[in-house]
Amino acid sequence: MTASDLEDKPQLELPTDSKERFVVETAVQDSVGSDDVNVNPTYDLALKYLVEHEGKYAPLNEKEHKGAVRKTDRILLPILFFTATMGAVDKVCLGTTAIFGLIKDNNLHGQQYSWLGSILFIGSLVGMWPMTYLLQHFRMGKVMSCCSLIWSVLSLLHCACHNFAGLAALRFLMGFVECAIVPGCGLMIASFYLKNESPHRTALVFMFASSVINGALSALATTFGNEIPTWKYIFILVGSVSFVWSLFITWYLPDSPINAKWLSERQRYHMVKRVADNATGVQCNYFKWSQVWEAFADPRVYIVMLFNFGINIPNGGLSAFSSIIIKNLGFTSVQSSLMGIPTGVIASISTVFFTWLASRWTNKRCLVSVISLVIPLIGAIILYTVDRSHVGPQLLGLYLMYFYFASYIVMMSCVQANTAGSTKKSVTYGFNYLGYCGGAITGTQTFRSDQAPKYTGGFISILVAYCACMVLSIIYWFVSDQMNRKKKNYLEKNGIERVLPEEDERIDDIDEEKVKDLTDKQQIHFFYTT
Q1: Cβ–Cβ under 8 Å, residues 472 and 306
Q2: Which of 403, 221, 385 shows the shortest CA–CA distance to 318?
Q3: What is the C-alpha to C-alpha distance for residues 382 and 378, in angstroms, rounded to an integer?
Q4: Is 184 inside any structural domain?
Q5: For the domain that residue 239 is a member of, what is the CATH number?
Q6: What is the pLDDT of residues 289-339, one digit of tens each?
Q7: Per the confidence metrics, is the pTM higher than 0.85?
Q8: Which of 164, 169, 189, 214 has a CA-to-CA distance to 413 between 20 and 30 Å?
Q9: What is the count of structural domains for the chain?
Q10: Do the Cβ atoms of 320 and 91 come closer than 8 Å?
């Protein structure tokens, strides 16, 4: 079979065996509800790439294979990390600029400051589906870099604002373009790494370093003098750093292993070949509506969306108000910005540990998510109940609350491992971001100015969110397990041998089930990680 054969083939039909019946039962009837059993003729680009280069390169030995993965770790992970972190800096940056005069200089009153935190996520809600389409339909690396570039310019324009309307408009637009960054990074990790490799690498990419960078840049901004307010210097620094970085990734960031600049042609071929064993797809720029319907019919999509909603209630509230909470304990503005640095360090360390545990503890990721939520729950109770005159326990409680981020990353690694089909992945990540934005908006609005400094409503919402996320993690575990049992029973009933991942390392004949962009439901040997 040649690449031209793939392009000219008008329609690919499933074989008339038990596999076809399974696809009809689980993919078509469950998701679409029609009698059309034909698979979309557009293949994953990985299949075309593998066909075009089949037989050209000698296999990689174990040392070469590990070398290619390590090279990708050294280059791709730092790129994605800094790209995702700069997109997150603005959320923390808003809280820091608030204690350096942004509220006073822009005549903000009442809930207007809270709305500035919310409006960014409202912009993300509006931009979510357009950006999901762009990530799927065009070159993913270029979409992410262009969004990062626009975001940088909008950050710089904050310096020209002098009222709520101007700030609100900019933050809405920032949210609109920023919503491509997190799903894009998640899709990128899924296209470069195996399922068991993704949890800790996801943790490294999404480490909560925004507080560290924001604290450092804020401290630097205080040394620039008084020609303009310090909060404007902060936005200038954040926007300038991000702008230069965006120019770099516009040139260097790939879309998948197929065009990774740091890999040789031989390494690219074998990296694509190994990731095909994920059976989740590598790259396909064709938007498939059948996969959209399947995503809408998948209960796990809604479970994770609700989980994202709950876990981002503390994210939204703490991002906008943690600096204010610290300052209310009696610290100066500069001290408050520096005291925010440990929040990022603690969140990052906890995330690395719990994702490492999730990758080592086979099929217990949901349980790890539940365990990791116990710590921030304790922190929230400490922060709310201990008298504010006890600064040490107050800070301890605040810092422990940032353990919530580990649970978020662990559950996102489940989504990466359990979702196949390029369009379905994009739509699923879009739903995840919908929950992310909804939770963050709720979080910023539950911290009301008239409840300062105790913020009773905010802390009640955070406590409820932590408990709800524990329950949702368990439900996701149960549903995924039931779906696995259904597939296993089907295989046994039809006499089909189950192929375990460790037994299925060879794809010399190009296993089309894995690389022709089928969804997880359409693949009879795809079993879900729990």
Answers
A1: yes
A2: 403
A3: 6
A4: yes
A5: 1.20.1250.20
A6: 888 888 898 999 999 999 999 998 887 777 767 777 777 777 777 777 777
A7: no
A8: 214
A9: 1
A10: yes
